[in-house]
Amino acid sequence: MPAALAQDAPLFIVLNQASGSGDPDRVEASIRRSLEGRGREHEILRVDDPAQLPTLAQRAVAQAQERDGAVVVVGGDGTINAVTQAVLPSGVLFGVLPQGTFNFFGRCHGLPEGEAGQGMLALLDASEQPVQVGTVNGRAFLVNASLGLYPELLEQREEAKQRFGRHRLVALGAGLRTLLKRFPRLHLLMRGDAPASALDAMTLVVGNNCLQLEKIGIEQATAVERGRLVGIAVRPVGRLALVVMAMRGLLGHLGEQQRVESFAFTELEVTLRRRRKVKVALDGEIDTFALPLRFTIAPRPLRLLVPRSAEPEHAA
Q1: From CA 51, how far away is CA 20, in angstroms rounded?
Q2: What is the pLDDT of residue 1?
Q3: Of 102, 153, 152, 147, whose CA–CA distance to 295 is shortest?
């Protein structure tokens, strides 16, 4: 039987006020009302500046360890990732209230979206579910890690969101605009479970989220549920062909494209010719990594709190 969240376990809540389109003051007030109404001990650590995230996440973990409590994060996939970096090695229970744009991690596990106070109440009736975590050079990712074109898409998407608001149509429009630009090719050297190979690609994405992989039509999507990661490499194509490919991905047919290669693995090393560093996007947050990149599965799973009423989403 999975372990349930203890009725007296205090909650240490990391709230990112920049995630989602709601009023952070109302979100915080709603959470407080819900927990105070149940007499549940808690502390809210509010993130006013993204640079505070690692420090506040470590503080929440330390308090949870000291008082046998749980850490809860309120935010989008990037915020969830930042808190995961601190939570994963600690082994403390971890609750998530998704508040972002796409929320693939939350939707994959049926975590409560929408009104934060009601979502927090759902987490009080939750049990522990182990969740696989991917890593690249020791850094954790829950949804995907990518290099090449995909980080460029993410940078343009975030710039558009800051100008026009955090909406899915804004994100999609920014992505299509990026596809029409010029961008350098990646000369990849890959070693891992399969024989070593070399290929030219526009982007390499390593997926760890069954729902996202199913949505874009990757046949190896279920490999994530069997303890593996899934690599997707897009070989160079023209601009118009790339736009068509992206649209087919939105319709769930990316894996059918001739210039798309996908494969499941447990370990993968990636080197780029004549380069020592590369930008990598982890769950939508971009950082620079030294080469080679080593993708693998974390030795311990995330102890995720999943409400008993959870209904995970599946791709149609």
Answers
A1: 18
A2: 46
A3: 147
